[in-house]
Write a structure and sequence with these properties.
Length: about 270
């Protein structure tokens, strides 16, 4: 038999770890010296400890190892760890692709203005109207008019917090004239429908997002950047892009301070 100090050296582990394993019942000493209280271990336990160490080195938790030693199916624990590592590798590969994109584009002018994040947009109740506008400047008239019509028909209706309004482009391509859009604003409940405005519940969606600061006339640069990012990072577009208006003419006098979020629904290609 070996005292705990020598046993720890043979096993290349710490005395503290052996004390912990003893405490939780994972690996208890073969005997305890009655005169000194020192723990005594055998070579058989060296094999058991080796098995514990091998499981720890592939990432199994102490709780999982305790379950295995108590009779649980080790294959189930290994399969769970396999799936965890697979997800971790996928996440790392995605991070590498995004880093590579940043490095490849660091000298391009627009890369200084835009950075992409991936975010999950939850389901929400929105009121919606589909219409055709002659150009982007028409937003300043048609969007407030939609809001007024909804408020008149639903005086108690409240906007969601934080506020979330967005335009979805229905043409599937960039147009600067006669643009078919779907305007939506998130609210707390369904309401009375009026003037072609209807209520619906959106599906949750994962989007690639960039923030565009400044005039709407420069928004196409943001689209060019994010679409290139989507392609280069192994995603595909699943729905028409959205524009979410955070700051604009209603609260910022200088268009340089307008803030628009471009959201492109995506999934892995």
């Amino acid at each position: 038999m070996f005292y705990i100090g020598n046993f720890s050296k043979m096993a290349k582990t710490t005395v503290k770890t052996l004390h912990y394993y003893d405490k939780i019942g994972l690996l208890q000493p073969e005997a305890v010296d009655p005169s000194t209280g020192y723990r005594l271990y055998t070579t058989r336990q060296l094999v058991e400890l080796h098995r514990i160490q091998s499981m720890r080195q592939i990432g199994l938790s102490i709780d999982e190892i305790v379950e295995v030693f108590a009779g649980a199916d080790v294959r189930e624990a290994l399969k769970r760890r396999h799936d965890e590592i697979t997800r971790e590798l996928r996440d790392r590969e995605e991070q590498l692709a995004r880093i590579a994109f940043m490095l490849d584009n660091e000298d391009k002018e627009f890369s200084m203005d835009y950075q992409v994040t991936i975010k999950d947009i939850p389901s929400s109740i929105v009121y919606t109207k589909e219409l055709t506008v002659p150009d982007y400047t028409a937003y300043f008239e048609v969007i407030p008019a939609i809001g007024r019509a909804v408020a008149e028909a639903n005086p108690d209706l409240k906007c969601a917090e934080p506020e979330y309004c967005f335009i979805t482009y229905l043409d599937g391509e960039y147009k600067d004239k006669d643009i078919n859009i779907q305007y939506s604003e998130a609210v707390t409940s369904f309401g009375n429908e009026v003037d072609g405005i209807y209520f619906r519940k959106t599906n949750p969606v994962t989007v690639a997002s960039v923030m565009h600061k400044g005039s709407y006339a420069d928004v196409p640069k943001a689209y060019a950047f994010i679409m290139d990012w989507v392609e280069q990072n192994g995603y595909r577009v699943t729905e028409n892009p959205r524009e979410s208006y955070i700051d604009g003419i209603w609260n910022q006098a200088d268009e340089a301070d307008w803030l628009t979020e471009i959201q492109v629904p995506i999934a892995k290609a």
